[in-house]
Amino acid sequence: MVQQAASHVTKKGLYINGAWVQEENQEFHESLNPATEQVVGYYAAATSAQVDHAVESAKSAFKLWKNTTLPERAQFLWRAAQVFEEKKEHLAQTMTKEMGKVLAESLGEVGVVVETCKYMAGEGRRLFGETVSSGASNRQIMMVREPIGVVACITPWNFPVALAGYKILAALISGNTVVWKPASEVALSAQIFTEVFHEIGLPKGVLNLVTGAGSKVGAQLAEHKDVKVISFTGSTEVGIKLSETAAKTLKRVSLELGGKNAVIVLKDANLDLAAEAIVKAAFTTTGQRCTAASRVIVERDVKDELLQRVVAITKNLKVGNGLQSGVDIGPLINKHQLETVEKYVAIAVQEGAVIECGGKRLLSEQGYFYEPTVLSNVKKGDAVAQEEIFGPVLAFIEVDHFEEAVEVNNDTVYGLSTSLFTNSLHYANRGAKEIESGLVYINNGTSNAELGVAFGGTKHSGNGHREVSHHAFDVMTEWKSIYTTY
Predict the structure, then answer these.
(1) Domain count within the chain
(2) Which listed residue (256, 299, 398, 467) is catalytic?
C-alpha cells in the first residue's frame, strides 16, 4: 500500500552520499508486522534517478576509500561493533516486528553482526599477497589483492542484518564501496544498520542504502555499468536472472541461493540427539532459512522410533508473536508465504504423505501463523522432497541403507547443507566425502555455521563463491601481478 500523506512515524527515506534523502513526492510503502498485521513504519521506494545517484556516490567515494589504509578501515568496523552493541535491543526488536522471528533469535543475530565487524576488521590485516620466484636474476615478482569498485549487496528478509553484514563488511574492509538493496520487508532494520555507520563517521558515499522493489531497484543495479560486483542472497530463480543480466557488463556475481537440506539418520545414531537437532534445524525461524532442514532421510529400522521423538518435541513448540516470552516459533513473513506452505502440504497429502502433526494454519484474527508440520510416508520424488518450501514443513523419507540415503540426499537440484547422524567413523567419513553439499555436519543440525568458515552451496544452491570467512575476498578483490626488474 502506497502512502503519500505524513505519518507520526518518521520516514527516513534513502541513505545516499552520507545523508538521508527523499524527493518531494517520494513514494513510501508500509512495513507490516507479520504477527499482528499492524504497520511498523514506512520505507521509501527509490526512483531510477536515486539509484543512479547512489551508484554515482559510491563510485566517487571509491577513489578515496580504496586508498584509505587497512588499519583505518578496520577502525571504522571496530567502532561499528561498539555501536551495534549499544543498539542491540532496539535493532532486535525492530527485526522481530518486521519479519517475525522470536526476539532471542533477533538478539543473537545482532550479536553475529558485532562479531562479524570484529572478524572482518582483523581479516583486513590478512589480505595477504604473494611473492613468486622469478626465472630472471634481476627480477622481483609479487601479486597483490586490489578492491574492484562499487559492490551492490542485495539481501533477503530472513536474516535482515547478519547476511547484510557478511557482504557489506567484507566489501568495506577490502576497499570497495557499497550500494545496499535490502528486502522491502525489513527496510526499517536496514535503516538502523545504516545509521550505525553514519554515526561512526564513515566517509560519505562509502555505504549507500536504497530500498524498493527488487524487480526495479535490484534489476537496475544488476544492469548498471558502474556496479562491478553483485552479491546476492535469495531464491535460485532470481539469482539466475541477476546472473544473466550482470553477464552483459561482465560483473562479478556471488550467489547464495536456495536449499533442500536433509538430515540423514542411520540406525546406529543417537536418536535423542538427532531428534532435538532435527526439530531445531527444521523449525527455527519458522523454517525460513536457506539451511533449514526440510527432509529427514532415515534408515527404516529406526524410522518409527525417530519419528515418535520428533513429533513429541514438535508438539511442545509454542507458536506466537516473537516479542512474547516463551514463544518458540513466530509467524511466516507474509500472507503469500502462508499460502505457499498450505499449498505444499495439500500437494504432499495428495501424493500420499501422512500428517503426523501440524498441517494447518493457526486461526486467529491477525498474523500469518502455521503449525510446525511433520509428514511421513514421503517419497524421494514428491514435491515436498524436491522443492524449497521455506516454511515449517518437515518430510520423513525411509531408506534401507547408507548408500540409498546418500543417493536420496543428492537427488535434488540443490546442495547447500546436509547433516549425518551416526556413531560410525566409517560412515561419517564416507558421508563427508560422498554427500553433495557445500556444508556437511556430522551429528549436528543443518544450520550451525560458524564465523570464519566458508559458507555456500553447490549445484543450484550457489555459483561457487563463499561468504562468512576470508574466502569472501575472492569475489570482493582482484589480483594484480607486479614485475620489477632492477
Answers:
(1) 2
(2) 256
What are 182's three cell numbers? Answer: 535490502
Q: Tell me, yes or no, if 276 is annotated catalytic.
A: no
**Whose CA is closest to 77, among 200, 161, 167?**
200
Taking residue 278's Cβ as centre, other Cβ atoms within 10 Å add up to 28
Domain housing 220: 2-257+463-485
Whole-prediction pTM:
0.95
From the list 195, 206, 112, the residue with the least C-alpha distance to 159 is: 112
Are 117 and 168 members of one domain? yes
Cell of 350: 495428495
CA dihedral 419, 421, 424, 427 (to 10 degrees): -40
> Per residue in 378-426, pLDDT tens?
999 999 999 999 999 999 999 999 999 999 999 999 999 999 999 999 9
Q: Is 153 designated active site?
A: no
Q: What cell numbers appear for 186 in the block?
A: 525489513
CA-to-CA separations, 204 to 15, 80, 318, in angstroms, rounded: 10, 15, 45
Q: Which are the contacts of 4, defined by CB distance < 8 A and separation ≥ 6?
A: 25, 27, 28
My answer on whether 211 and 66 are in the same domain is: yes
In the set 185, 290, 356, 398, the catalytic residue is 290
Looking at residues 469-477, what average pLDDT do you find?
96
Q: In terms of domains, do 390 and 243 share one?
A: no
